[in-house]
């Protein structure tokens, strides 16, 4: 784990080196203090020698001051190094996640990815800070204190050497037991976060269906599972303390008994025994600190495996290399599907969602896709900007397989309004400029007018500078859809995909939006998914999907004349209109 983490210490290596050096100096100073104290007791107070007492006392103050300064700066540098490592890890994870396809995100789950970027990184930060200070301090203290203790009285210090291997064996056993328990614990955090995330995102649905009790029970189950996993690990970790205390107590009793006999026999001074006990305590408590640090390291190791699982993942979709010859030229917007098949990795059945899809959308055409719920309409258009890759056949833009395009260039030329409209926290202006960050004020206004959003934007006191809350919760569904359409139109794409993106606007407004496509996006290929037949009647060609296959292609009149599925959709909607009328 340490070897893998070292590159992420970039920018903070100086602090990572200075922290253990200063901790080592602090520890040396602390080890000197008992020797000075022994001198004060034996040579100063014991001999009624005030000059020696004052001289050694002054030396103790100087050493204590140096120790304090080293401690302060070592804590500062350790904190900087740990926080810097965490920041670099989070950035690396975010960069990798940004390159993931929809399939990659589905594989990890968004809740798990959030946990890996927050909780897992925090655990690693904490352990790095512990290792740079507590672990270094404990190891230096243990080694040097053992040397001094052996120098003072090897016969008494040897008892510590006998006890240490037993304590170390118990610690290694606990680490081996706790490692898989910590991994289970992190997985339970994923599940808990997933439950919370779903509940917050779907809060309105939960309240609308009065399912608060059901969701509380689901949360309780996830929370209890995490608690149980945490207890399974913690109840084993707490065994460390009594084991170590038993070692400390045993060593203390043995050294006090044997040391007392030696003092009574005149073999050593009381000050020497006092300083020896001080060093022995330092050794034993250093062992305790090492044990605690190693158990924290075990948890951090489980977290690091999860983080590196993300960093080592190869994105399902790789950017194409054919940039110089084809990718950089202006796209005309011809879209062609050649015998396309597709299935989701996570599909339990393994069946194709789409199969044998073949059609061509020519530049400047309006192509509509209709069909029942769940026939694969959204999946179909997601293949054009390569949110997913086909499992069979080819998708081509201007005669070039989309796999050969740079992802940035391809997606910059494909505007998309997804079925689920997403607005970010920020002003309306900031949200629209996602379409083109260099757009002028005139272009911004024109895009808003084309999407029939200008009037309601200007009805707000701050106009384009009106602040949108996260997800655009302070605007209506229809307003949100029109803002998303304006954002896509501002890009002036070669291909514009509208995935049921006018479902929340009235028919008159929808007609005005369609009219703006013809007037201001004349060269743009518009691919439109709609539920209402009235929305697609004027399309150059309409593709009817049924059970993942093309069941018909043609204009409205052609399909009405000879396509049973299209006719059924049309007449069912006409009946609904008649009943409402």
Q: How many helices does DSSP assign?
A: 20
Regions with little confidence, pLDDT below 50 for 5+ residues? 323-328
What is the average of the pLDDT values? Answer: 83
Termini distance? 70 Å
Biggest sheet, open or closed, and with what strands and sense? 6 strands, mixed
Order of adjacent strands in the largest pleated sheet: 6-9-10-3-11-12
Helix and strand content put the structural class at: alpha/beta
Q: Share of helix among residues?
A: 55-70%
Question: How many beta-strand runs?
Answer: 12
Shape: elongated
Q: Proportion of β residues?
A: 5-15%
Rounded to the nearest angstrom, the radius of gyration is 35 Å
Based on the model shown, name its key terms.
581 residues, 6-stranded mixed sheet, 4-stranded antiparallel sheet, 64% helix
Secondary-structure blueprint of this entry?
Elements: H1 2-5, H2 13-45, H3 50-98, H4 102-108, H5 110-117, H6 119-201, H7 203-208, H8 212-237, H9 240-264, H10 270-311, H11 323-327, E1 335-342, E2 354-361, E3 366-371, H12 377-382, E4 392-397, E5 400-401, H13 407-412, E6 414-417, E7 426-427, H14 428-432, H15 441-450, H16 454-459, E8 467-468, H17 477-490, E9 495-499, H18 507-520, E10 525-529, E11 541-546, E12 549-554, H19 556-562, H20 564-580
Parallel strand pairs: 3-10, 3-11, 6-9, 9-10
Antiparallel strand pairs: 1-2, 1-4, 4-5, 7-8, 11-12
In short:
With 581 residues, this protein is α/β, with parallel strands linked by helices.
Question: How would you sum up this structure, described in words?
Answer:
The chain has helices at residues 2-5, 13-45, 50-98, 102-108, 110-117, 119-201, 203-208, 212-237, 240-264, 270-311, 323-327, 377-382, 407-412, 428-432, 441-450, 454-459, 477-490, 507-520, 556-562, 564-580; strands at 335-342, 354-361, 366-371, 392-397, 400-401, 414-417, 426-427, 467-468, 495-499, 525-529, 541-546, 549-554. By secondary structure, the protein is of the alpha/beta class. The strands form three sheets. The chain has a six-stranded mixed beta sheet. A hairpin with a 2-residue loop joins strand 4 (392-397) and strand 5 (400-401). Helix 2 (13-45) crosses helix 6 (119-201) and helix 3 crosses helix 6. Residues 323-328 have low confidence and may be disordered.
């Amino acid at each position: 784990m340490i070897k893998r983490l070292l590159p992420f210490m970039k920018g903070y290596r100086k602090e990572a080196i200075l922290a253990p050096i200063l901790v080592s100096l602090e520890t040396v100073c602390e080890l000197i203090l008992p020797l000075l104290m022994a001198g004060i007791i034996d040579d100063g107070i014991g001999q009624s020698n005030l000059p020696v007492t004052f001289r050694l006392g002054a030396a103790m103050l100087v050493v204590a001051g140096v120790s304090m300064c080293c401690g302060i700066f070592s804590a500062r540098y350790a904190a900087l190094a740990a926080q810097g490592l965490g920041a670099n890890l989070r950035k690396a994870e975010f960069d990798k996640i940004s390159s993931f396809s929809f399939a990659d995100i589905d594989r990890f789950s968004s809740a798990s990815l959030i946990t890996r970027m927050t909780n897992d990184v925090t655990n690693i930060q904490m352990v790095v800070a512990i290792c740079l200070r507590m672990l270094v301090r404990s190891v230096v203290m243990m080694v040097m204190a053992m040397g001094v203790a052996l120098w003072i009285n090897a016969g008494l210090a040897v008892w510590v050497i006998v006890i240490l291997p037993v304590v170390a064996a118990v610690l290694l056993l606990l680490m081996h037991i706790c490692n898989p328990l910590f991994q289970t614990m992190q997985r339970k955090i994923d599940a808990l976060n997933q439950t919370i995330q779903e509940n917050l995102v779907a809060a309105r649905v939960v309240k609308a269906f009065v399912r608060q009790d059901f969701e509380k029970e689901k949360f309780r189950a996830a929370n209890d599972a995490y608690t149980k996993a945490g207890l399974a690990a913690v109840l084993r970790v707490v065994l460390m303390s009594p084991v170590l205390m038993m070692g400390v107590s045993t060593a203390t009793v043995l050294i006090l008994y044997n040391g007392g006999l030696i003092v009574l026999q005149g073999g050593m001074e009381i000050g020497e025994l006092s300083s020896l006990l001080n060093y022995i305590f330092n050794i034993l408590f250093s062992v305790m600190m090492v044990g605690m640090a190693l158990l924290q390291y075990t948890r951090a190791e489980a977290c690091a495996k999860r983080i590196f699982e993300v960093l080592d993942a190869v994105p399902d979709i790789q950017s194409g290399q054919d940039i110089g010859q084809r990718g950089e030229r202006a796209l005309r917007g011809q879209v062609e599907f050649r015998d396309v098949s597709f299935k989701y990795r996570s599909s339990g059945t393994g069946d194709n969602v789409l199969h044998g899809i073949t059609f061509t959308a020519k530049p400047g055409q309006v192509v509509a896709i209709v069909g029942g719920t769940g026939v694969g309409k959204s999946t179909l258009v997601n293949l054009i900007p390569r949110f997913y890759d086909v499992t069979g056949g080819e998708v081509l833009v201007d005669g070039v397989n989309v796999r050969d395009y740079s992802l940035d260039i391809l997606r910059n030329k494909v505007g998309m309004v997804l079925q689920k409209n997403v607005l970010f926290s920020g002003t309306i202006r900031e949200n629209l400029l996602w379409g083109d960050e260099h757009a002028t004020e005139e272009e911004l206004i024109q895009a808003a007018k084309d999407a029939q959003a200008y009037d309601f934007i200007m009805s707000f006191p701050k106009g384009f500078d009106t602040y949108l809350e996260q997800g655009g919760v302070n605007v209506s569904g229809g307003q949100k859809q029109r803002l998303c359409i304006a954002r896509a139109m501002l890009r002036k794409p070669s291909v514009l995909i509208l995935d049921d993106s006018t479902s929340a606007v009235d028919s008159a407004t929808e007609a005005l939006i369609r009219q703006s496509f013809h007037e201001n996006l004349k060269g743009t290929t518009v691919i439109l998914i709609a539920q209402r037949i009235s929305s697609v009647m004027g399309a150059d060609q309409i593709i009817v999907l049924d059970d993942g296959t093309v069941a018909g292609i043609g204009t409205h009149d052609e399909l009405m004349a000879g396509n049973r599925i299209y006719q059924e959709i049309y007449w069912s909607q006409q009946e609904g209109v008649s009943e409402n009328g």
